[in-house]
Structure formats: C-alpha cells, structure tokens
Design goal:
The complex is a heterodimer of chains A (161) and B (782). In chain A, 24% of the residues lie in helices and 17% in strands. Chain A is of the alpha+beta class and 161 residues long. The longest helix of chain B has 19 residues. The chains are: A alpha+beta (161), B alpha/beta (782). Chains A and B meet through α2 and β2 of A and loops of B. Bound molecules: iron/sulfur cluster (SF4) (5 copies) and FE2/S2 (inorganic) cluster. The site of one iron/sulfur cluster (SF4) has 14 residues of chain A, from α3. The site of FE2/S2 (inorganic) cluster (FES) has 12 residues of chain B, from loops.
Chain lengths: 161, 782
C-alpha cells in the first residue's frame, strides 16, 4: 500500500516538473541580454542608483534646497549651493547645486530623499551594478547622476536608467 | 503698577495693569501668534494674526494692542479663533510665492512655522501670482518683494532702533511696498538689523544668499572680533575643503550682552577669515632675502634658538615683545608671562588705544565704579564725553538709543564735532578738539572762559543727577581722567567707562601687556604676588614701549622682536632699515606691513578659530568659542607654548596643566551620543576638568582667575554664556608715584562703522560697503 502511495506522490510531483519543462522560459538573460541593463528587468518602483532629472528645457530640476540631505537617514548626500546668474543658468530657480554628491557606501536606498524633494529632481533610477573594489569611486558626483540633456545622443542609451 | 486679574481660556492669570494682553498670555505659556508685534518696538497691528475674542466686545480684538483690564474674559483657543488665524494666513499667502525650497528663510521662517501650525494648506485662489524681480539695495541688503508680508518690522527697527529711517512704505493698502530711502538703494548704516528682524525671507543678505540652509550649518555663539563692545555673534559654519568655513554671521542666539543688536562688522565682516591671502605655512627668510616655506618644527626651532641665544648672550633686555588687541586674555596673559619669566624682559607692550591705567588709578580702592555695557541701557542719565559711539561703539550707541526710547534716559554730550547721538541727547555742547582736559577740570569747578553758558548749564545738570554714568573716549587720558573721575566721584552715584577700540583692548591691558605693569595693573616694582610666581628671571626694571622698542632696534640694541598679532610697522611707519639688525618674528594671519619686515612669519588663527575669553572695553568678560577652522594655521597660544618649550623652559611652570591626572576622555560618559555632557559640564563648572595639554586655554584661565586682581568671576556663569563684569583694583598703581605723570602711549585708531584697523583691509565685504557708502555721501555732498 505504502509503495503505491509513494509512487503516486512521486508521479504527482514529477507532473509539475514535466509540466513546467515545456512552458516558455521566464528566467532573465542577465548578464548576457541586450540594453544597458544587460537583460535584467525591474519593477517600475525599484530603487536603484539615483538620477537627477532635468526639466523640459534641459535645466536641472534641483534647486539645492537641501531637503533630501536633511531627510537622508544615512547622511550621505552632500550639496553645495550657488546662485544662478544671467550668463550662466543651471536650474530654473535662483539657486542650483554646484556640488551634489551621494556616497553609495552609505546609501541604503530608502527613498526618503525622493520623497522629500519638492521639485522631483532626485529620483531612483534602476542602476544596480554598484559594487566596486574602490570605495572612493562610490562617492558619485552630480555629473555621474545627472540625466543627459534632452537631445543628447546619450539619451536613448541611458534614459531608462 | 497694580496687578489685574483676568481669565484666558478659563485660566485665571494676573499681570501688571498696562501689560499687553499678548505679553500677559505669553508669560503664562499661552501662545498667541504674531507677525507684526515685536517686543521693544512700537505697536503696528498690521498683521491681525493675534486676534482673540474678548467677552463683551463686538468684534475680535488684536491681542498685541489690547491692554489687560480687571475681569477681562478672553478666548484664544476656540474654533472661531482657529478660523480667523487660518483666514489671515490665507490672505498673507494669496500672493506669496512657493519659494520655500530656494528661499533663504526656509527652515527658520515664521510664516512657514505659522502655516504649519495654524495652517491654510490649500488656497482659494486660482489667479496667477504676481511676480516681481528681486532687488539689490546695497552690498549687503537684498529685497524680494513678493515674499514680504508687510509686517513693518524692518521699517520700525531701522527707524526706532537704529534711528536711521532708511526704510519706508510706498503706496497704500494691498499695494503697499517697502522701499529704500535712496530711490532704489539704501543709504544707511548697513547694520542688517532689518534682515535679522524680517520674519520671512523678504530681506536677505548678500553674504548668505543662496549659500546653504540653516540646518546644514553648525551654529556657534562667539564674540565679534571687531570693536571694543564685544557683541555676541552667532557664526554658521560649514565643512569646506580646508577646514570649517564661516558662511553666515547673525544674531540667532540673542542671549549675549548685545541682545538684538549687531552692526555691519559683527554680521558681515567675518569674511577676512576666508580671505585667499591667508598664510598657511610658516615662512623663513632665506639668505637671498626671499621667504621660503618650512615645516612647523623647523620654524619653531629657528625661533626658539634665536630667542635663547639673544637672552643668554645679550640679556633679556635685548628682546622686545608686542602683543595683540584681538587675542584672547589667555594668550595675552601667557605672552607676558613667557616674556617676563622665560625671556627675562619687560619690553612688552601692545597697541594702546586709550588710557585704562589712568582710569584704574583714579578709581583705585573704589568698588563697583566701573560700568558694564548693560548700564548704558539702564542708567537714568549718561554723560558721553568725546568719541562718536555711532561710528566707533555701535552697541553702546544702540543701548543709549534704546534707553532713551524705553526709559526716557537723559543723555548729555560734550564733543568737538557733530555726532549723530545728539538727536537723542537732552543737552549737547561743542568743545574745542584740544579742550577735553580743560573741560574735565571745568566740570570739577575750575573756571575757564573757553566754556560758555551752555557748558555751565550742562555742568549744573550733571551735578543734579542722582545717578550718572560717565562714558569717555580716548580724547581724555592721563590727568584729564583724574580730573573727570574726581568730578564724578563728587556726585552721589557715578559709574565710569573708558572707550578702547578693539575687542580685547581692555583684556590686553588687564593682562599686563605693559612694560611697567603686571596683570591687573600691578606695578612691576611691587614685591610678592605675581613677581614671586613668575620666578627669578623676572626683571624689576620697567621695559620699553612699542615706540621705544623700534628706537632701540635702530640703535642696534634690540636683538629680537617678537610680534604676536599686531601690525606696528603700518601704524608707526617703521622702515626696513630700522630693523636690519633685529631678528623679527611675526605671528599673523596675513602678510602685514610688519610681516614683510620679518625674518620668520608664523601663520595663526583668528578669534573665530580659537577658544578662550575676552574682556570688552567696559570690563565685561565673555567666553569665546571656536567656530571655524583653517588647515595649516596654529593658535597663538599653542605657538607661544611651543616656542617656550623648544627653548627648554619648563612648560608646567608656565601653564598649570596635567598635575598627574589620568582622564577618561569621554568614552564612558556618552559624549558621542548627542546627550549633553553633564559630567563634563559639572567638572568644568567646578574647575575640576583635567587640563591635559598646555594648549588648553582653560588651564591659563585657571591661573588668571587665581592671580589677576579683578578676575574672580563666577565660572559657572561664564561657561553658561553670561558675561561677567571685572573690576580691577588699582591700589597698587596708586601707591607708586611715577604713575602720576606716566605717558599713556595711546594711538586711537579712529575707526568708523566700516573700518576695523588692519583687519578691516582683509574683509572684502567691509571694503565693498565702505566704497558704496563713500559714494553715497559724495553724491549727498554735491
Ligand atoms: S535613498 Fe535614502 S539613504 Fe540613499 S540618499 Fe536617499 S535618503 Fe539617503
Ligand atoms: S518667506 Fe518663508 S514661506 Fe515664504 S518662501 Fe520663504 S521660507 Fe517659504
Ligand atoms: S541695514 Fe540697518 S540701517 Fe540699513 S536699512 Fe536695514 S536696519 Fe536700516
Ligand atoms: S520686508 Fe520683512 S520685515 Fe519688512 S515688512 Fe516685509 S516681511 Fe516685514
Ligand atoms: S558693535 Fe562692535 S562688537 Fe558689536 S557687532 Fe559691531 S563691531 Fe562687533
Ligand atoms: S501681532 Fe497683533 S496685529 Fe500683528
């Protein structure tokens, strides 16, 4: 009796296995897939490396209000503010971030900075390959985080990041 | 006045009749929001935030203008009031820009706080907001019109507090706009009081605009390094590439003896510390005549070696030492102690700007005759002889104006020029520029035809004052001070104050930076006391003053000149030739005229970068806290100790530190956890904290407290930030006859509101303001 029962149990289990074998593959082709993420796929709300956004005119959205830095629980955002001038306009308000660093040694990807931002300037992108053998390279500067200019050739490649 | 009893929100409260309802409520912890009400200024009733319901009154009333009356029944916490507050805020915000993220006031804005608390989260308006461009009114003042909520605080503080009246109102009603006096610019004292008092971000300062945000800075309350009044200024500092940089000066911490006040220098002239020209490496002159940077060790070795050789070969009298009027008391004290006990010289002096010695001698043995600067704000009558407080002692002028406004104080003036304070004076006379000494004697009763009826009337008025404060400038020195003191002491109740120019002019004098006086004005020839403490190398011969030191150098009699934070070469016009045979060591922040003549230049920190104490010209002792930091510089205290140490002196004999203590450095008392270090506070207050290094200014303060006459202050109070008044007892000076006709050697600096001795040259903002105002007065003169 017990043999019959055991065989039935095995058959039931294997039926799942064989059933799945002939289904289409759902596994991501990372890291051999196409695109900047090499096949990795994300939920829309995945919190990866930050992107500093630009407005429709290509000006930086960040106005250096320091609210993200104030909200950050791991104190990893460093900003230095400066004033826009008529000759050199960086953001659309009076002030812009001359320096904007995020220290990814410390960032815990909590998203508080994104919540705090009044101008939707800082957002979480999907960049996730952040490991490094050199911790100093994990302090990313504004230039590393900024979204490309609306019409720049780099746009297509990294707009999804 | 008699007390009245009233009921607020069901609570029975008592307050003196005549108190404003708003104040009475605040006293018992019932908060009534207010924008336009400001303690000490006239009432405006413009903002209507303070509305309350008073029984039997038909409409809501403004608590800021209503006086309490017996039996009043007030409601401040009902739906009706909440609704009223919300409606007022909605109106204020109707055309208010959504600027908070970039606005300088964000984070310390009263409108933000009120909206948060009494809030109108949404708006009923759909209209587009009216935008106006920001305007620059002066090198320091900017105006952003849409942010203005028309509380008129700025207008009132400039008018009443400053007596400048540079701000006014154009147009009426909702079209009202704050406007500067000179069309589109401000012709004024540039004090920034209007910016400080603005509850929102409508008035902003050029130095801080768009730089950072309040919570990003560390705020340190320390003492302004400029004039002799010693205001407390709060410096906002931020990490920078080479230390901690000062980004803002303001009066956030209104706990100092200056209360609300700061002048243009205390608020904006901190930028000398960030000047690019600052020296950050020790420099030694090479055989080819050029300076070359060397390490600190080498520089100190060279200096110590020269000092020792000079002392041992040519005697202590071949060494000259010049101290500073901007260093701490600890540094001044240690400098003269090292000079006397290690170098064996009495050739020690500083830039004297007035004659404290004469006043101390004149008041010898009399207790509590020296005034504190607070007395200028409370004395019923004040006689100001000489000086122009508005220009040279802005806080004194503020206190006098406030005193007249609030207490109807009587101010008497005698001056050789027209000064602005005349507008507050009860009576004011003009005397000849060289007639101050004669006038002092005239007051004492010596008749003089130079002084006419008005002078006699003034003298009579002063004689009839039951209580008088006499403040005099550096026009009076030596025997003139004696004559004035004699007159003052013949009146029933008189206090005195003598006006010196720099932040620690008084401290330098008190700490004995004199060739013939030890700390506390003790004559060098007096036995025992300090002499016994300082050891056998000390000479009994009075030394040379600054001018004599340069003469001695020219005669080839000075082997070494050690200048700590002073610029005598610029002041006295010394040429390089006079110092060709003298080894000159200069400790300074910049390549000053004296530093250019030096053989070794040691870069030092300024008053904002060190801790210690300073004494203002009134004798108010205050704590200096380290705010900023600059890589590459050292404090004068550290350098003095290290030079003496390298010379082979016993550092323990110079600074009482260590004493065999092994201390827990704070690990076990949780100082890292953000809690108040109660353990540390207790130790410090009871003078028990271990001083583990000779660079600890508190160790020197211990000795000052123990040995310097007059400096027996309450340490707990000092540490808590309260100024302590010191009153030197000059009886020693009195006993010795040579002090009767002692030359005072004072060279008043004649600074104005916009200059600050040599230091002022290095403040870009101050220079900018000075040029701006100079242009304004040229136009006015045309
Ligand atoms: S995600 Fe969190 S930890 Fe990272 S920068 Fe933003 S606030 Fe800081
Ligand atoms: S004044 Fe206050 S409420 Fe107005 S924009 Fe500035 S911070 Fe915001
Ligand atoms: S800076 Fe001072 S003097 Fe000038 S307008 Fe403002 S309050 Fe008046
Ligand atoms: S500028 Fe500031 S202080 Fe002056 S009225 Fe407007 S809000 Fe009030
Ligand atoms: S009055 Fe004197 S001490 Fe006060 S802020 Fe002005 S310069 Fe500094
Ligand atoms: S505070 Fe009473 S009306 Fe402004």
């Amino acid at each position: 009796m017990s043999i019959v029962r055991d065989l039935a149990a095995v058959a039931k289990g294997m039926s799942v296995t064989f059933g799945e074998i002939f289904q289409p593959t759902e596994v991501e082709n990372y890291p051999d897939g196409p695109g900047p993420f090499r096949g990795a796929k994300f939920e829309e709300r995945y919190r990866g490396r930050h992107v500093l956004q630009r407005d429709e005119n290509g000006l930086e959205k960040c106005v250096a209000c320091f609210l993200c830095a104030a909200a950050c629980p791991s104190n990893c955002i460093h900003i230095e503010a400066a004033e826009n001038t008529a000759e050199q306009r960086i953001s659309s308000a009076e002030r812009y971030a001359k320096v904007y660093n995020i220290d990814y040694n410390r960032c815990i990807f909590c998203g508080y900075c994104v919540e705090a931002c009044p101008t939707d300037a800082i957002t979480h992108g999907h960049g996730f390959e952040l490991s490094s053998l050199n911790t100093t390279s994990l302090v990313m500067r504004k230039e590393d985080l900024l979204a490309p200019m609306p019409d720049s050739p780099a746009k297509l490649e990294s707009s999804t990041q | 006045m008699a007390d009245v009893t009233l009921t607020v929100d069901g609570k029975t409260i008592t307050a003196p009749a005549g108190t404003l309802l708003l104040e009475a409520c605040r006293k018992v912890g019932i908060e009534i929001p207010a924008f336009c009400y400001y303690p000490g200024l006239s009432l405006q009733a413009a903002c209507r935030m303070c509305l309350v319901r008073i029984e039997k009154m038909p409409k809501l009333q403004t608590a800021c203008t209503t006086q309490v009356t017996e039996g009043m029944i007030v409601a401040t916490d009902t739906d009706e009031i909440h609704q009223a507050r919300k409606a007022m805020l909605e109106l204020v915000l109707a055309n208010h820009p959504l600027d908070c993220p970039v606005c300088d006031a964000g984070g310390e804005c009263e409108l933000q706080d009120m909206t948060f608390k009494y809030g109108a989260g949404g708006s009923q308006f759909v209209e587009i907001k009216n935008h106006r461009e920001e305007q620059q009114w002066s090198p320091v003042v900017f105006f952003d019109r849409p942010r203005c909520i028309l509380c008129y605080r700025c207008v009132r503080v400039c008018n009443e507090g400053m007596d400048v009246a540079a701000l006014g109102i154009q147009q009426r009603n909702s079209g009202s706009v704050i406007a500067p006096n000179d069309q589109t610019q401000l012709d004024c004292e540039q004090c920034g009081m209007c910016i400080d008092i603005c509850p929102v971000g409508a008035l902003t300062s050029d130095t801080y605009r768009y730089k950072t945000r309040p919570w990003e800075m560390t705020h340190v309350g320390t003492i302004c390094t400029h004039c002799g009044d010693g205001c407390k200024t709060t410096l906002g500092v931020r990490r920078s590439d080479d230390g901690m940089q000062i980004v803002r000066g303001d009066n956030r911490d209104k706990s100092g003896l200056n209360g609300e006040f700061l002048c243009v220098k205390g608020r904006y002239a901190f930028d000398f510390a960030n000047n690019e020209e600052r020296l950050t490496q020790p420099l030694v002159r090479q055989p080819n005549g050029e300076f070359a940077p060397v390490t600190w060790e080498d520089a100190i070795k060279i200096v110590a070696q020269k000092f020792r050789v000079a002392r041992d070969d040519r005697g202590g009298a071949s060494i000259g030492v010049i101290g500073s009027t901007r260093n701490t008391n600890e540094e001044a004290y240690l400098l003269q102690k090292v000079a006397r006990s290690a170098f064996g010289t009495n050739n020690i002096d500083h830039h004297r700007t007035t004659d404290y010695v004469a006043l101390t001698r004149a008041l010898a043995g009399k207790k509590h005759r020296m005034a504190s600067i607070a007395d200028a704000g409370s004395a019923p009558a004040i006689f100001v002889l000489g000086n122009d407080p508005t220009e040279q002692h802005p806080l004194l002028a503020w206190n006098l104006r406030t005193n007249v406004r609030h207490n109807s104080a009587r101010i008497y003036l005698a001056n050789h020029r027209d000064i602005k304070l005349q507008r507050q004076a009860k009576s004011s006379i003009q005397i000849p520029a060289d007639g101050y000494a004669a006038f002092a004697r005239f007051l004492g009763g010596e008749e003089n035809s130079v002084f006419g009826e008005d002078a006699k009337a003034l003298r009579d008025a002063l004689r009839n004052e039951p209580s008088l404060l006499i403040v005099f400038g550096s026009e009076l020195r030596g025997s003139a001070i004696d004559a004035l003191a004699e007159f003052g002491l013949s009146l029933p109740d008189t206090k005195f104050a003598c006006l010196g120019d720099y932040v620690n002019s008084r401290g330098a004098a008190d700490m004995g930076l004199y060739p013939d006086l030890l700390p506390g004005y003790v004559p060098i020839e007096q036995e025992g006391g300090l002499r016994a403490e300082y050891g056998g190398r000390m000479s009994q011969q009075a030394g040379l003053d600054v001018a004599q030191m340069f003469e001695a150098a020219a005669r080839n009699e000075l082997a070494v000149l050690y200048v700590v934070g002073d610029d005598p070469a610029e002041r006295l016009g010394v040429d390089a030739d006079a110092l060709r045979n003298t080894f000159v060591v200069v400790q300074d922040m910049f390549m000053t005229a004296t530093a250019k003549l030096a053989d070794v230049v040691l870069p030092t920190s300024n008053l904002y970068e060190k801790s210690g104490t300073v004494t203002n010209t009134f004798g108010d002792l205050q704590l200096v806290k380290k705010a900023a930091d600059r890589a590459g510089v050292r404090s004068d205290l550290e350098l003095i100790v290290r030079i003496a140490d390298t010379m082979g002196e016993d550092v323990h004999a110079l600074v009482p530190f260590g004493k065999g203590v092994r201390a827990d450095m704070g690990q076990s008392r949780g100082v890292q956890s953000g809690e108040a270090d109660r353990h540390g506070i207790w130790l410090a207050a009871h003078n028990l904290e271990p001083k583990l290094s000779p660079f600890d200014p508190n160790a020197v303060l211990d000795e000052i407290q123990r040995l310097v006459p007059g400096y027996n202050f309450d340490r707990m109070e000092l540490l808590a930030g309260t100024s302590q008044h010191v009153d030197a007892d000059g009886s020693g000076v009195m006993e010795i006859s040579r002090f009767a006709n002692r030359p005072d050697g004072a060279m008043p600096s004649a600074d104005t509101l916009f200059t600050s001795g040599t230091l002022g040259h290095y403040s870009e903002k101050l220079n900018e303001v000075e040029t701006f105002q100079a242009k304004k007065s040229m136009v006015a003169a045309d």
